[in-house]
Amino acid sequence: MGKDEIKRLIENSKKIIEQDHEDFSKSIKSDLTSFKKKALG
User: What pLDDT shows up at residue 41?
Assistant: First the structure.
């Protein structure tokens, strides 16, 4: 495995992790919003 290959793998992993984090954050926010509506509704 060359340096470039490792670098590329790390970059890809980083993108995947950031995307997962983004999705997770959106999911949490939407859960909170619906919870507030139920609680206050």
Answer: 82
